[in-house]
Amino acid sequence: MFTNTIKKIVRAGLLVSLGLSFCYSAYAQQEIKIGVIYPLSGAAASSGSEMKNALELAADIVNNGAKTVPNLPFSAGGGLPNLKGAKIKLVFADHQGNPQIGATETERLITQEKVVAIVGAYFSNVTATSSQVAEKYKIPYVNPESSSSTLTQRGFKWFFRTTAHDDLFVHNFFDFFKELEAKKGIKVKQLATFNENTLWGNETTKLETKLAAEKGYNLVKTIVYPAKSTQLTSEVQQLKSANPQVVMQSSYLGDAIMSMKTYKELGFSPEMILANNAGFTDTEFRRTLGKDADYVITREVWSPDLAKNNPLIKQVNDLYNSKYKADFTGNSSRTFTGLMTLVDAINRAASTEPEAIRKALVETNIPANKLIMPWKGIKFDEHGQNVLGSGILVQIIDGKYNTVWPFDLATKDVVWPMPKWDQRK
């Protein structure tokens, strides 16, 4: 009898154990782990923080809903409907702006955290190494912001980029110059390039040099400076001596701020600084420089003043602002869109199997009215490049970004030339 009692206790304990195991398993299935890798420390930590906020907002909308944006996908909340309400769990990694750390952290996310997909990584050179690891492990990789053209020229099967790329953005610069002359009577001929020397900046320099020659512009100076420089005095002196009308510049946040301070210090005042996004669109750029940030024109992919054409822009930006006391930027709005695109694919796949997610990404076709971006939609070509993305140009006036090109979308007339430093109020 004693033996039978022991057997019953053991059997009961086993059932309880199995029950707990089953409950844990069922709970575990309610979370879909997505790895996200961004610069959360180092010189671009401010940019990384804004993009982290955007990711958390997107996940919160999917998991818990957002009644104020009923037309946004997943705004009803409750998780992914095709996966029985499974919730998104973001697993963050910090690449610190270092390509090698990006690669090792991506491997950790895949092999130890067991994420089903990766979103990242802002820096093009980090995205290059990070996505290579994902390709090796056959894990879907969605890249919302990196614009280096070669990222989608590597023959990868698991890499998908939602943003447009630098080939298109640099063409936009020269389209702008042409229309500036035709519609505003402003003629630009003397150009200079001032770009950092990682993958993004080097590729941009090649594109700008090529197009300047093809389109008949005089490139009076080409400067490629070391990324994360501690001073830019000699480089700016070279620019000043070359006397360009327009400086086309590609810099991350720290370099963008430093260059503007050096321009003022040395009295360098070209007709225009035409920036290639990145540091020039970070909230910290305007916060640090104040009025000295005014009049810069930068290429962009998003601006709050475009809400007149798309109510979703204001509705989602208001959510972001209420939570983080700041507006979306071109970076964070793209990051938000990248995660929402991945979630859409996982839901359509009705699976967390990597191949099923990859196949759903290939079949993605999100219409413009479901996006907060001023794009025609999201649809990937055979290289994983969204073919429906586009760019705009914005100018900082009174501390705010205003769309100035394309001219039919402009909310303010372009101010040209930039006032000289000693003529500013």
From TrEMBL:
<comment type="similarity">
    <text>Belongs to the leucine-binding protein family.</text>
</comment>
<keyword id="KW-0732">Signal</keyword>
<dbReference type="Pfam" id="PF13458">
    <property type="entry name" value="Peripla_BP_6"/>
</dbReference>
<dbReference type="InterPro" id="IPR051010">
    <property type="entry name" value="BCAA_transport"/>
</dbReference>
<feature type="signal peptide">
    <location>
        <begin position="1"/>
        <end position="28"/>
    </location>
</feature>
<feature type="domain" description="Leucine-binding protein">
    <location>
        <begin position="31"/>
        <end position="376"/>
    </location>
</feature>
<protein>
    <submittedName>
        <fullName>Amino acid/amide ABC transporter substrate-binding protein (HAAT family)</fullName>
    </submittedName>
</protein>
<dbReference type="InterPro" id="IPR028082">
    <property type="entry name" value="Peripla_BP_I"/>
</dbReference>
<dbReference type="InterPro" id="IPR028081">
    <property type="entry name" value="Leu-bd"/>
</dbReference>
